[in-house]
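FAQ

Q: What does a record look like?
A: Structure on top, sequence underneath. For example:
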């Protein structure tokens, strides 16, 4: 195709496949850069699972651990939709944290009323996201605990002794007929 030559496709597919989280790059920056490469090559041919696997394995260990923690186990064991939701949520939290850090460094002052109102909205959104993540983890743990209890399907009956000789309510050893 003259508008999108195979060499450009090959280059972008290579960028996606060999994607790495840069040392001083935030989680949000890495995620946005990865999505940028995917958008630049809309016919890359990578499945959603392959994309998630590539991104996850390119992350530093701390970010991989954070994703595993939010997922309640191995991140890549989740379905693609859940993985994307977790990444987007973590990206928002990290983005608002980095904005907070940048703003503090820029103003070189403690929090005050001189800060823009969207700053506080970002903090509130970040806290909401964290709370949502923790509530989801708590609900999952609660459901796992609930499901681990065995509920009997039929009522349990007491065992009654019946004599095999006469059929009365006593043991065989106590039967007057023996």
């Amino acid at each position: 195709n003259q508008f999108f030559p195979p060499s450009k496709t090959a280059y972008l597919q290579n960028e996606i496949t060999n994607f790495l989280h840069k040392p001083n790059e935030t989680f949000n920056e890495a995620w946005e850069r990865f999505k940028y490469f995917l958008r630049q090559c809309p016919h890359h041919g990578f499945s959603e699972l392959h994309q998630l696997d590539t991104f996850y394995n390119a992350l530093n260990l701390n970010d991989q651990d954070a994703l595993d923690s939010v997922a309640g186990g191995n991140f890549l064991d989740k379905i693609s939709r859940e993985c994307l939701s977790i990444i987007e949520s973590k990206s928002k939290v990290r983005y608002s944290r980095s904005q907070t850090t940048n703003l503090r460094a820029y103003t070189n002052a403690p929090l005050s009323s001189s800060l823009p109102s969207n700053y506080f909205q970002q903090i509130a959104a970040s806290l909401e996201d964290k709370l949502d993540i923790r509530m989801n983890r708590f609900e999952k743990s609660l459901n796992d605990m609930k499901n681990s209890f065995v509920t009997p399907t039929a009522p349990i009956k007491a065992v009654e002794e019946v004599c095999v000789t006469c059929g009365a309510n006593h043991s065989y050893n106590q039967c007057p007929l023996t």
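Q: Is there anything notable about this one?
A: Residues 117-148 form the longest helix (32 residues).
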